[in-house]
Write a structure and sequence with these properties.
This protein has 118 residues and is an all-beta fold. The protein is 0% helix and 53% strand. The protein starts with a strand and ends with a strand.
């Protein structure tokens, strides 16, 4: 069973940066597409970014493109989300997700809170 643990959340002023990390255990990391999602208060969980198994392709929501960068280190079983130029509307719980390429079902971590003050 895959287990995901996020870290790196916190409080930052608008315009600042944070880097989130997510470590996967229990399965072979390089078999998984990895993604970041977020859920703001009163809103549904939404897609933020994803990266393919080898790291060769990345995908972003329009709202974060150019500000956030997803990357992975398969030797460390870890995926990252570098967040720059943060805005108050980025405030949310950020979740790490993992799925195999032949599945539509995501495994989730418990999330990490990101709060951006204006």
């Amino acid at each position: 069973q895959v287990q995901l643990v996020e870290s790196g959340g916190g409080m930052v002023q608008a315009g600042g940066s944070l880097r989130l990390s997510c470590a996967l255990s229990g399965r072979t990391f390089s078999y998984y597409v990895m993604g970041w999602f977020r859920q703001a208060p009163g809103k549904e969980r939404e897609f933020v970014a994803a990266i393919t198994e080898s790291g060769g392709s990345t995908y972003y929501a329009a709202s974060v493109k150019g500000r956030f960068t997803i990357s992975r280190d398969n030797a460390k079983n870890t995926v990252y989300l570098q967040m720059n130029s943060l805005k108050s509307e980025d405030t949310a719980i950020f979740y790490c997700g993992a799925r195999t390429n032949d599945s539509t079902s995501w495994a989730w971590g418990r999330g990490t809170q990101v709060t951006v003050s204006s």
